[in-house]
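Database export, one record per block. Field names are fixed; values are copied verbatim from the stored entry.
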Amino acid sequence: MIFQTINWLDSTKELVSLQLPDVSAGAANSPGGASEDTRLHIFSVSLTPATGTGISLEVQYARSTQMWFEGTNKTQIVEVTVNNVGSEWVLANNSVKVTVSAPGYTTVSPGIINRLRPGDQAIVQLGVVNSGGTVAGATGNATVQISGAGVNSAPYTFNATYGIIPYESSFDSIYAHEAPTWYKNAKYGAFIHWGVYSVPGWGNVGKNESYAEWYWWDMNLGPDTSEETYQYNLATYGPNHNYDDFIQNFTASVFNPKDWVDLFSDAGMNYFVQVSKHHDGYAIFDLPSNVSNRTSVAQFPHRNLLQELFDAAAQYQPQLHRGTYFSLPEWFNPAYAKYGFGQWPGGNATNPYTNQTLPYTGFVPVDDYVSDVILPEMQTLANMGTEIMWCDIGGPNLTAEFAADWFNTAGGDGRQVVLDNRCGLPGDFDTPEYARYDAVQVRKWESNLGMDPFSYGYNRATPASAYLSPQGIVTSLMDIVSKNGNFLLDVGPTANGTIIATEQNNLRAAGRWISSHAEAIFNTTYWFITPEEGDAVRFTQNSNAFYITTLYPPNATLTLDSPVPYVNGDQVTVVGGNMSGTVVPTQLLSNGSLQMTISDAIQKGDQYSWVFKIPFGGMTSSNSTANADASTTATGSGPSQSNGAGSNGGTGSNGSSGIPTGSNGPNQSNQPRSGASVPQANLGGMYIGVLALLVSYYTY
């Protein structure tokens, strides 16, 4: 496997070696250990010497994107990565601005850097427009310039694509799309699994719990499984009851979509993703009769449930972005048989007790499942106004054809939409399931899990006490956001449309905390140096402030060893809770650590998590008063993948230093092995806080 990683280096210290991970025990997911001859091969290391003096800012990378600022006439976003390679801080009164220019290409919204320590990095987004008759899609050299009081910086030239251009149905064109700013800033959304599987609503409990929405598949696995769905279904419904018989009991009888969207708003969420069709093939929206009649409109309860939810959101909570989950394959659709694989075989199901072949309710014969079912279903969702296409499973698809039209049509309406990584293409964000990343991911990601311990669909076997608590919601959210993630938290309504009281109560309790602490969550980005300190502390920031969140009640003295961006004279305050706005006595210790005195009133003035704010405004540029370390802060949201839309890296005069690690192939004996270090002779010197490694981890 190949990975790229970017890490901070302390530019106040001399770098003499790099210690590599010990992989002598073998691949983590394979048996055999050392006998498998596992190797770690480094292809490249990029370091930039910290040789500047004063405030010396250097552009590491610049690229034009196909994103635009919301609320504008498609003001194009250019993203610029800036390093402070000097010896002094950037502070607010240095008035640092980042602009880009070229003939026919003008900055209308400069990037702003309010605080940047020596050796740190900021990623800024600036807005540009075409002028002088420049045609959208034209390419050419553009120059980034950084200005500010006392700032030294050389111009940086890169190849730019001028303006927003239409997407084409090719891999490269769709790959150039990326998650829009609204999605990056939204942070928190609702996942809703609601369908025919909600009728049995069962997935076992404890260590044997499985996804309740997989009920049909699990009951076909037979009696010798930990899920025990086969036995439960037999005992509860008998041998002659088939899965499709549940359709008539999917009543939605108390479904009130206004109640749902009001709940999501009260919970502090900014978007929702409703399951429109799961692997059982039952869609809760209307479809053309030549595509499928396996829908909530053609079948019971004869309602377009998804449209009702979308309409309620538009009317009562218009700030909520509307999204749809969509399963590409269907377990037992006869038309999917020629594409079937693994747990998605296609072909008619059989009754596991009688071995009788079962009809597929609402099935419409088609020539090709991919072109005649998947594509028109996705197009229908797009026409309904979905802003998030949250596919699942992948497999055979026409996603490139769909996405090009969807992106262009939405863009023509002034909307920016987003595609997940399960549609058969890399998409705009990654989706760890009942999991989260332990470190910052530069590419946008979204952790999804249920409030249920291990089910998305409603599971009647789960006790109320097992659902995710308000504290669990809050601490999960703050951890995920600190690492550049979004949090998609699932609820599983019952068949009649009820979201159970425990889920509602816990969501609203967490929502009250989120509302009180919103500035530390939404419209923030991660801190390049580190997202956390130990198990208890997480960091976020925006262009005007830095936020310290403790996931547990803080002690009377909170000491941080991370080089948080505090300078003498900053007034640290409490965010949220009963003591919001209270000044927290703060001092720098002789070793550079930051010490905060937390009063008893502050400790008792909040719950779930405690947030403290370091403001960036109002400081003078007397760098003798600054801490030895500081933060990076920029306008806009966190960075997207470096090989996304627009240009390649530029050719500015301040290039990085490439450090070779051997030109022979990975089988050569002179390659770094487990636990090896890159030789000191190649590294001696002071470097800024950037280390990029492209490594391959493999086993022979």
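Remark 1: The two ends are 12 Å apart (CA to CA).
Remark 2: The chain has four domains: 2-48+656-699, 55-184, 188-520, 532-625.
End of record.
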